């Protein structure tokens, strides 16, 4: 035994020596790697090649460095930022430093008491640069990096109030100030405790008035004003103002020729601002507060008095689905199909995927139906969304399709099946190409959310195959490419959302049609 134990210890010692020598060799091999070979891989982590130049130009613009002049610096900054318009997320790592320097300079200028940015070209260029960052990366992302201290609220508001709306060359100043106020207004204090003016209108009334004033602008200042008003309505101390704001919005929508507070007829732009503001309010405000007031605007939204533009049609359908999601209680339906994801551990253990379609027995289905409380307006909302599937503009049909998917996700199984049946009826040779395209988008949205039960697939798949081969002659040309593209989206949604053995009906023919479209 002692001999065996001694031999075993010798073997352990030799193994440790071999391990140590191999580790040392690996370390030497790593150290022998040329630094020039490793450096490109380290630099690849930063995909903004002009990062140093961009930050240097921004800092020199904020500091007032005269070489080069402010116009040249702003032009170069614009050229660099617009280069990343298509992949703006690459700028995220540098946004805090970039936006922080710009807003610090603006904050210093506003706190000095100056009110006329047009007389300061450098400050005007800074405002334009902030807008450019918002355009490239998106205002929702950039506004979170704005300073939002309590002391900035009144200073920014007073600076905005001193601006002239008729000066179109300085609209970026008003746009940035409205965005800034929309984030400062989230301070967790009652605005009466912040108001330093003891005479005249309250700060709450003044903020609400300036937001409504800029809501009728024809530029992006209208969107920023809508963001400000929706933020204000989400505050508890603005709850008494919501009834008045909803009545005012409804009165604008039912007018055949709406005018702003100054009496200027702005029609489409004013309605655009109203829709954007109401969408933000329904998105930010609690459902309990909205249920008491939704009746004030619902009829005006359903039947506006003026003819809507393409963008306003899209916003109207988006607002309608927001209203529906407020009226219908949020819930996760038990009846929808859910594809079970297989873990890596199950794969290693040799356990295959299992079918995970949600199936309710008769009693469970009846009990699940009884749990739903569907308001009366739901049917009208679904009809409006389905009518939007046949609109001539793609963005309107796309908004309607997403709305049908979101609303159906909160309906009982019987009502959801009726929605699916009405969409299938749009796959009709007598319907226009717009209806076929909208129906494909709606089916894809339903399938992606698991709201298209496997029992409906035998009636859906043949229609999708027809859509894959859709083509109509119009004079000397043919149309139907958009319908075929949407049908491919349906195929992708079915393959992604269901188990491989589920969509078997007509699958071989569908593969052939997909290949035909691809070629």
How would you characterize this protein structure?
- By secondary structure, the chain is mainly α.
- Helices cover 63% and strands 1% of the residues.
- It has 26 helices and two strands.
- It has helices at residues 2-31, 35-43, 51-63, 70-82, 95-111, 121-137, 139-142, 151-161, 171-184, 191-194, 203-214, 221-233, 239-254, 267-284, 287-291, 298-302, 310-327, 344-348, 362-370, 377-388, 394-408, 413-424, 433-448, 457-468, 481-497, 507-518; strands at residues 472-474, 477-479.
- The protein has a two-stranded antiparallel ribbon with strand order 1-2.
- A hairpin with a 2-residue loop joins β1 (472-474) and β2.
- Residues 1-8, 18-45 and 353-363 have low confidence and may be disordered.
Attribute tags:
519 residues, mainly alpha, two-stranded antiparallel ribbon
The ordered string of helix (H) and strand (E) elements is: HHHHHHHHHHHHHHHHHHHHHHHHEEHH
Oligomer class: single chain
Question: Total strand count, please?
Answer: 2
By secondary-structure content and strand pairing, the structural class works out as mainly alpha
Distance between the termini: 77 Å
Count of alpha and pi helical runs = 26
Q: Report helical residue fraction.
A: 55-70%
Strand content: under 5%
Largest sheet features: 2 strands, antiparallel
Low-confidence stretches: 1-8, 18-45, 353-363
**Widest β-sheet, arrangement of strands:** 1-2
Q: What's the overall average pLDDT, rounded?
A: 82
């Amino acid at each position: 035994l002692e001999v065996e134990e001694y031999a075993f210890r010798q073997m352990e010692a030799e193994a440790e020596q071999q391990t140590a020598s191999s580790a040392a060799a690996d370390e030497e091999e790593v150290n022998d790697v040329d630094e020039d070979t490793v450096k490109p891989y380290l630099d690849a982590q930063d995909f903004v090649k002009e990062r140093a130049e961009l930050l240097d130009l921004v800092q020199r613009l904020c500091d007032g460095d005269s070489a080069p002049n402010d116009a040249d610096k702003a032009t170069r900054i614009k050229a660099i930022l617009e280069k990343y318009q298509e992949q703006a997320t690459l700028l995220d790592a540098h946004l805090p430093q970039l936006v922080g320097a710009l807003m610090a300079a603006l904050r210093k200028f506003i706190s000095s008491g100056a009110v006329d940015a047009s007389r300061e070209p450098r400050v005007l260029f800074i405002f334009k640069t902030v807008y450019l960052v918002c355009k490239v990366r998106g205002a929702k992302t950039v506004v979170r990096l704005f300073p939002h201290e309590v002391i900035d609220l009144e200073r920014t508001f007073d600076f905005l109030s001193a601006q002239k709306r008729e000066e179109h060359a300085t609209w970026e100043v008003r746009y940035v100030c409205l965005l800034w106020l929309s984030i400062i207004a989230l301070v967790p204090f009652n605005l009466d405790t912040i108001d330093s003016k003891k005479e005249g209108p309250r700060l709450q009334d003044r903020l609400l008035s300036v937001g409504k004033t800029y809501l009728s602008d024809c530029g992006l200042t209208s969107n920023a004003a809508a963001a400000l008003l929706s933020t204000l309505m989400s505050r508890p101390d603005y709850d008494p103002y919501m009834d008045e704001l909803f009545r005012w919005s409804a009165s604008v929508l039912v007018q055949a020729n709406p005018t702003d507070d100054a009496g200027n007829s702005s029609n489409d732009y004013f309605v655009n601002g109203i829709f954007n503001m109401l969408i933000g309010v329904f998105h930010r405000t609690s459902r309990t507060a909205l249920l008491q007031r939704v009746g004030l605007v619902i009829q005006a939204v359903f039947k506006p008095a003026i003819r809507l533009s393409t963008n306003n049609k899209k916003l109207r359908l988006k607002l309608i689905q927001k209203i529906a999601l407020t009226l219908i209680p949020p819930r996760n339906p038990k009846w929808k199909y859910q594809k079970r994801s297989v873990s890596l551990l199950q794969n290693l253990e040799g356990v295959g995927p299992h079918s995970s379609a949600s199936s309710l027995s008769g009693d469970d289905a009846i009990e699940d139906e009884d749990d739903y409380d569907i308001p009366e307006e739901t049917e009208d909302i679904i009809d409006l969304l389905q009518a939007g599937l046949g609109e001539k503009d793609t963005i309107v049909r796309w908004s309607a399709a997403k709305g049908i998917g979101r609303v159906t996700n909160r309906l009982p199984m019987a009502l959801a099946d009726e929605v699916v049946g009405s969409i299938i009826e749009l796959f009709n040779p007598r319907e226009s190409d717009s209806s076929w395209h909208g129906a494909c988008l709606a089916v894809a949205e339903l399938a992606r959310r698991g709201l298209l039960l496997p029992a409906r697939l035998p009636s859906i798949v043949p229609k999708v195959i027809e859509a894959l081969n859709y083509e109509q002659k119009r004079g000397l040309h043919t149309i139907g490419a958009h319908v075929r593209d949407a049908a491919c989206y349906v195929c992708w949604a079915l393959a992604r959302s269901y188990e491989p053995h589920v969509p078997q009906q007509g699958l071989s023919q569908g593969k052939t049609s997909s290949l035909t479209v691809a070629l």
